Amino acid sequence: MSGGMRRGVAVAALCAVAWFGLAVEQKASAQFGPPPPPDLRNARERAPIDLTGQWVAVVTEDWRWRMVTPPVGDSASIPLNAEGRAATAAWDFERDRREGNFCRSYGPPGLIRQPTRLRIDWEDGDTLRLQFDAGNQTRRLRFKPQSPGGRSLQGDSAAKWFRQTQSRGVFAAQTPKTGGSLQVHTTNLTAGYLRANGVPYSDQATVKEFFNTFTLPDGNGTWLVVTTVVNDPVYLSTDLLMSTQFKKEANRSRWEPRGCDIAPPLVPSARQ
Q: What is the CATH number of the domain that holds 246?
């Protein structure tokens, strides 16, 4: 075959591929219609669920790690590696007092596990503000991209709404038009504690959270469930998974903020 013929065959093949692609695109457009226009509403207007209000933590599990300060070295149920276990065993309450480190338990992974009340409000159309009376802390969950600043106790939290696609076979996957959840990814953290007894996470840790709500029948109230996944390549051997429950309060009268620099109600005086 001559060079000219080979070029002709190649051009014909390319034209056939282009025609086939155009035919598929036209068929898809005819079947499914044009893509939907971009959604220009802000995050508050697009919210599939309402998280606002005041919520109280319901501590029905892990009581001995959440309601009091555990003994030194108690890291049960946390997947620490050797370095994490060593750091936990070396924790010193008096050293934290001298160095002003009481707030280390109030970063996102530890704060959500505190026996706390939580207020959730819209600070603006694209920012959810979470206020905790435990430690008197405030987190901001931002739906618009932000330029990262310096590392901080609460870090930078990027939020998005999410609806889980429901699959009923290979060709029947559907995304529900109602309901949904909030996903949050937090980075840029300073080092802190997963528990008040010095179980550590490093400044390389990242936190993923999933906020879901449901209402029980027979007047049993509206509930908020926060699932937290902590990844820390420095101190954890695998991801730490936690689930924390809150119940919505009828009003905001019960609110008792206390600074994170106040010592916990019970602290171990010696290793146990």
A: 2.40.128.20
